[in-house]
Amino acid sequence: MNSINALNVINSLNAPNEISFQSLNTELKLNREEKTSKSVFDGFFDAAVKLLDDTSKLQLIDEQMQIDYAAGRTDDMLALMMTQQKAYSALNFTVQVTNKVIEAYREIMRMQV
Questions:
Q1: Calculated CA dihedral for residues 55, 60, 66, 71, nearest 10 degrees
Q2: Closest CA to 10 of 30, 18, 32
Q3: 53 membership: H or E segment, kind and range
Q4: 28 vs 17 pLDDT, higher one
């Protein structure tokens, strides 16, 4: 969409006596707003993906620790309990964040335009 706005501005520059500074300023302002909203969404999306990745890694570490403990490769019960608690807390936090995002989405869909 940015390329279409840029083409419109360039076309208006090429046509003599058809350019107005107000339309140019409006186009630039729209481009700036699109870039800001896109970067905010990108930041939110990256944080959500990182949260899911971290939760998954903690779950895998916990699973491996349980296997090692059951196989007798380690006898560190404290480390096992700590990894289980970290994995549980991360999963609980991820579920809560997901629920809040879904709740916000539903609220937005209920809004009257």
A1: -170
A2: 18
A3: helix 21-71
A4: 28
